[in-house]
Design a protein that fits this description.
It is a single chain. By secondary structure, this protein is α/β, with parallel strands linked by helices. The protein folds into 3 domains: 4-255, Aspartate Aminotransferase, domain 2 (3-Layer(aba) Sandwich); 257-344, Aspartate Aminotransferase, domain 1; 368-428, Orn/Lys/Arg decarboxylase, C-terminal domain (Ornithine Decarboxylase, Chain A, domain 4), CATH 3.90.100. Helix content is 35%, strand content 13%. Strands 1-7-6-5-4-2-3 form a 7-stranded mixed sheet, sandwiched between helices. Strands 8-10-9 form a 3-stranded antiparallel sheet.
Length: 431
């Protein structure tokens, strides 16, 4: 598979021409870091002259089996925001969207800017994307322009997109597959088979620089405004280094299907070894995650993560109940051997109780836009009880707002905020 962006950047790096163009470091920091010079194409206009970026995107498109795949140099954030923009452009008379309650902050940010009313689809556990087709159907109505769901969640759970696709009929399905870009190696399981619009964070599980992502378009009715919609929200100076890494990743994917399956086997063996040591794991739906039920081993998820870090293993995420490890195709056999040694040295304690740190009974009093732009004040969390939340506070990871703008702050929300160490919050001013 050809690498048109990389080839151009490599050739340009040998040029002796005076660099009377951006960036200001003039190649001294990185010879491949350029701007839109002659021949370099332009990310948001590449369909006009069909240059190197367009050709590279077509390579990705063929690998992911989409109608059109666009590059993002601002991760899934830009892709998610573009998805909502395209929904607004296609259905200007509909302002409602049914959405997974634990959506990423980029979703709610776009909803605020585009003035979407949201009908939340709740699950029973914090961050869990396990919602049923019936749950989704209850959230849609004649004003629904689309349904927005996560394919995977931070605890390795998976949404049944097949059943939901069948249940919602022709309503556009938008899927955040940020954690599942590796499914390019088993395309039959990629959300492109079910959804109209899908985002992948390439940098999470593929060898791509941070910020590299894909927006997959599988419904041709969204194609005419796709690049324009992305340009409205994206930087006018997209990183060529990130695009280069996406370009090189195409070739990597094409050549490494066997390596992918080898790593999947290593992860599965690692899970089995952990189970043999007495660690209880969440059922593996996301193949790249190993999620430990820390409470059953006598630890909070955070405490177990700290124990592992002290032994040389840095975890992706931890909360009260779970410790999450995220692997990729780039991890080696030695990585798993060393990781197992870190776990082996942790003493088992008396199990502690699982704590449900979220209630799905929160109610919205204002729309996200009205709440966010209301006259507001910052108060202590103790003083926020029964007030209307105005801001978007989302510790990262997981990047999910603990309370959405417009929601009333209940006792359960205060408990959740406390778990993440939040001491103050922005609320709507009382009249």
């Amino acid at each position: 598979m050809k690498t048109p962006i990389y080839d151009f950047l490599l050739k340009n790096s040998y040029s002796t021409n005076i660099k009377a163009y951006m960036p200001g470091h003039k190649g001294l920091l990185n010879t491949h870091d350029i701007t839109e010079i002659d021949g370099a194409d332009s990310l948001y206009e590449c369909e006009i002259n069909k240059g190197i970026i367009y050709q590279s995107e077509l390579n990705a498109q063929s690998l992911f089996n989409s109608k059109r795949t666009l590059y993002s140099t601002q991760g899934s954030t830009l892709s998610i925001q573009t998805m909502l923009m395209l929904l607004k452009l296609r259905f200007p008379d509909k302002n409602r969207i049914a959405a997974f309650r634990f959506a990423h902050r980029s979703f709610i940010s776009a909803a605020v800017l585009l003035d979407f009313e949201i009908d939340w689809i709740y699950s029973d556990e914090f961050l869990s994307c396990s919602v049923s087709a019936d749950d989704v159907k209850k959230a849609i109505n004649d004003k629904t322009s689309g349904v927005f769901l996560n394919h995977f969640d931070y605890h390795g759970g998976k949404c049944d997109l097949f059943a939901i696709r069948d249940a919602i009929g022709d309503i556009p399905l938008l899927v955040d597959n940020a954690h599942g870009a590796y499914l390019v190696f088993e395309n039959e399981n990629h959300p492109n088979n079910f959804a109209d619009l899908v985002c992948d964070s390439a940098h999470k599980t593929l060898p791509v620089l941070t910020g590299g992502g894909y927006l997959h378009i599988n419904n041709e009715e969204f194609l005419p405004f796709a690049k324009e919609g992305m340009a409205i929200l994206g930087s006018s100076s997209p990183s060529y280094l990130i695009m280069e890494s996406l370009d090189l990743c195409n070739k990597f994917i094409y050549e490494n299907y066997d390596k992918y399956h080898e790593v999947c086997n290593l992860i599965e063996n690692f899970r089995q070894e952990l189970s043999n040591l007495g660690f209880e794991l969440v059922a593996a739906r996301d193949k790249m995650k190993v999620v430990v039920k820390a409470y059953s081993y006598g630890y909070t998820g955070t405490a177990l993560a700290n124990e592992l870090k002290a032994r040389g293993l840095e975890c992706e995420f931890a909360d009260y109940n779970y410790t999450v490890l995220l692997f990729s195709i780039m991890n080696s056999r030695a990585d798993f051997k060393k990781s197992l040694a870190c776990f082996r040295n942790i003493s088992k304690r008396i199990s502690i109780a699982y704590q449900n740190i979220y209630s799905n009974s929160e109610t919205s009093f204002l729309s996200p836009k009205d709440a966010f732009f209301s006259k507001s004040e910052i108060v202590s969390t103790k003083a926020a009880l029964n007030r209307i939340n105005a801001g978007i506070f989302s510790p990262c990871p997981p990047g999910v707002p603990l309370v959405m703008p417009g929601e009333i702050i209940s006792e359960k929300v205060l408990d959740l905020l406390s778990c993440f160490g939040v001491q103050s919050i922005r609320v709507v001013c009382n009249k």
